[in-house]
Design brief:
Layout lengths: L6 E8 L5 H14 L4 H19 L7 E8 L3 E8 L25 H10 L2 E6 L4 E8 L19 E4 L3 H14 L12 H10 L2 E8 L4 E9 L4 E9 L5 H16 L6 E4 L12 E9 L5 E10 L6 E5 L4 H10 L4 E5 L12 E7 L4 E8 L4 H14 L4 E7 L9 H6 L2 E7 L7 E6 L6
Parallel strand pairs: 9-10, 13-14, 16-17
Antiparallel strand pairs: 1-2, 2-3, 3-5, 4-5, 6-7, 7-8, 8-9, 10-12, 11-12, 15-16, 17-19, 18-19
Helix pairs in contact: 1-2, 2-3, 4-5
Length: about 450
């Protein structure tokens, strides 16, 4: 969307295991060409092989599978388009290893192996075919905080976009000066930020004086065409930090003012954020590894008039959504989901994003089934055991089926806490685990 032109390669194969070597050669060569290290390319190749072999055991020999390997700047994505009505996604759950015996010859064992070899996945089911997307990110060295020039107060300065080395220097400055709770996880790997900016996924602005000294910066990225999330502003030195922070925010706002963006949001605001540009948009209670609780306020800014939209929701959260939409003046038609006896999958699937630095895990629904309550409770126990006390669940109200997770979430002591307008296909409703922390 805001990235460079998509680069991808496509392969179409019959469902025949004799063609495995063609598939693995295609994936490994494409992944290496798109920037993955040989070991990472091998992981993606092995994952693709396991999935292809599994699909061959399910699909009709008359059908074909189509693969697309895409370059994403800092990652490589592999997309499978196929026909297989009984594809078992359950192996992709983080907790699946507790259910599947990896020493046995179960067909799902291959899927479990594949799921552990990639960083992220998503699944979509359309009328006549299914789509599985695997993502493998490039490996970047963790920043060891290399020496950088001492911070000085800037008298005369300008705001512009940085050169790659300036960007990495900014990242190190920020990590040295600010609490990790207000810094994006990607700042641990400056090279990744540089690739994200170069590819157009993110943008960064910095403050510099005539000598090239850096006095601050801000980063923003597009969740989609309508919502931008930002981190910062960050500023170093006094007494000019207030002027610097306001200038950075104004630079960011002007860069997206004449685009399709409807809203600008920060979930982990910097202490230097000039609040006059934004409105409070909800609170999150973050638990530190030492169990201290930090209450964080999110901030939002309308970038243009909201023309309104429709969202799906479960009856149990209708009142919460109505209050949020009225308070922030969002025109929404809330449509209630109801199950009227139609068939339901037996298995639910949930993806997980983990941020160990914040002791945080974000659950994202991939597929809904009858075991949703049991699966969610299993996730809670596993995540708490790993010291991930801040557990969130992101529900896309643009997909009606995701709303069916609501009763299981509430029964498992999750509470609705924040609405991200246009955060996904529709608005994103965030739930936060508010139950006991028992390890």
């Amino acid at each position: 969307m805001h990235a460079n032109k998509v680069i991808q390669a496509t392969l179409r194969l019959d469902y025949d295991q004799s063609q495995v070597s063609i598939l693995t050669s295609f994936v490994e060569n494409a992944a290496t060409c798109y920037g993955l290290e040989p070991s990472d390319a091998l992981d993606l190749t092995l994952a693709s092989e396991e999935i292809f072999v599994y699909l061959c055991s399910l699909a009709s020999q008359k059908e074909q599978i189509e693969l697309r390997c895409r370059h994403g700047g800092y990652f490589v994505e592999l997309e499978f388009d196929f026909h297989a009505g009984n594809f078992d996604l359950g192996a992709f759950n983080l907790t699946a290893s507790q259910i599947i015996d990896t020493t046995s010859a179960q067909p799902e064992t291959g899927l479990l192996i594949a799921s552990r070899l990639v960083d992220k996945f998503s699944f979509f089911k359309h009328d006549h075919f299914s789509q599985l997307v695997l993502r493998k990110e490039k490996s970047y060295p963790i920043d060891q905080s290399a020496p950088f020039p001492l911070v000085k107060t800037l008298k005369d300065f300008l705001i512009r976009e940085p050169e790659p080395e300036e960007l990495k220097l900014l990242v190190r400055h920020v990590r040295n000066e600010y609490d990790p709770c207000v810094i994006p996880l990607s700042f641990q790997t400056p090279g990744k930020i540089a690739d994200m900016v170069q590819y157009g996924v993110s943008r960064v602005a910095i403050v510099v004086d005539k000598s090239g000294a850096i006095g601050g910066g801000i980063l923003w990225w597009w969740q989609n065409a309508k919502l931008v999330e930002f981190w910062g502003p960050y500023s170093f030195g006094e007494p000019e930090s207030r002027v610097i922070s306001s200038g950075l925010v104004e630079y960011m706002i002007s860069s997206i003012a004449r685009t399709t963006v409807v809203g600008l949001i920060t979930i982990s605001p910097s202490p230097k954020l000039p609040l006059e540009y934004f409105e409070p948009f909800g609170n999150l209670n973050m638990i530190a590894p030492d169990r201290d609780i930090c209450r964080s306020t999110c901030y939002y800014r309308h970038m243009q008039e909201d023309s309104g939209s429709s969202v799906w929701a479960h009856q149990l959260v209708k009142d919460f959504l109505t209050t949020e939409y009225e308070q922030h003046v969002f025109a929404r038609q809330i449509r209630i989901v109801t199950n009227e006896g139609e068939n339901v999958s037996l298995t639910s699937v949930i993806a997980t994003d983990i941020d160990k630095g914040r002791a945080k895990a974000t659950l994202k629904p991939i597929w809904w089934g009858k075991d949703d309550s049991k699966l969610i409770q299993t996730y809670i126990k596993a995540l708490l055991k790993e010291g991930l006390f801040n557990i969130f669940f992101e529900m896309d109200l643009g997909h009606s089926w995701q709303c069916y997770f609501t009763p299981a979430l509430l029964e498992s002591h999750f509470e609705p806490c924040l609405v991200l307008p246009y955060g996904g296909t529709g608005d994103i409703l965030m739930f936060q685990y508010a139950g006991e922390i028992i390890i």
